[in-house]
Write a structure and sequence with these properties.
- The protein has a single domain, classed as Rossmann fold, CATH 3.40.50.1000.
- Helices cover 46% and strands 19% of the residues.
- It is built from eight helices and eight strands, in the order E-H-H-H-H-H-E-H-E-E-E-H-E-H-E-E.
- It comes from Ferrimonas lipolytica.
């Protein structure tokens, strides 16, 4: 029996035109809360732009400021509204076609993203895609400000895939990303692609 293929896709910047983590932050955060957080958000953004803070650290800090104490049901409702209202225009047609091609071939398609499950889960469920991503943690019914399994970027992307899948059970492994945070994911693949082009993995 022929083994299936495995296709691993990043989300923001790979399947989509834009950064949905930031877009959802502005969509879901009340104006009053954003105003209170601005004295901290502005220096965070500046430090990130200067390269003093990594994207992963910045995301964790912003998540804490924006979502701590907010009710799970409300955040999930906002996530569903966000993706429902934007899925017609946020996706790159060429990469969405590539994803659908893998599905039509019977490949196992997995979304591996540092973006949040709040808006990714509804879309993945609708399209029959397995999801590995950053997930908010909760204390009772309120967001704690942290993640259940860490920020799903860099090495954590590869770790999450390896914890979920036995790669020896797949004939070919494809991976698609757009940034340095995706390189550990691309390292798992027989056919890695960075920004739509074949990526030559380091042999060192």
């Amino acid at each position: 029996m022929t083994k299936p293929n495995l296709a691993l896709f990043d989300f923001d910047g790979t399947l989509t035109h834009n950064d949905n983590f930031s877009a959802f932050l502005w969509f879901a955060t009340p104006v009053w809360r954003m105003a209170l957080a601005c004295p901290l958000l502005v220096p965070l953004k500046w430090a990130w732009q200067q390269g003093w803070l990594s994207s992963a650290i910045t995301r964790r800090s912003v998540t804490r400021l924006a979502y701590t104490g907010r009710r799970r049901e409300r955040l999930e409702q906002l996530g569903q509204r966000y993706i429902a209202g934007r899925q017609q225009h946020i996706f790159r047609p060429d990469m969405l076609a590539k994803l659908h091609q893998h599905q039509q071939q019977g490949d196992t398609v997995v979304l591996v993203s540092a973006s949040l499950n709040l808006y990714l889960q509804p879309w993945c469920r609708q399209n029959g895609i397995t999801l590995l991503c950053s997930e908010l943690s909760y204390i009772g019914n309120c967001a704690s400000g942290g993640y259940q399994q860490g920020d799903c970027a860099n090495q954590i992307k590869a770790q999450r895939v390896l914890a979920r899948f036995d790669l020896s059970q797949y004939e070919r492994i494809y991976a698609y990303g757009d940034s340095d945070e995706d390189l550990p994911l691309l390292a798992l693949a027989d056919f890695p692609y960075l920004n739509g082009s074949p990526y030559k993995k380091s042999t060192t």
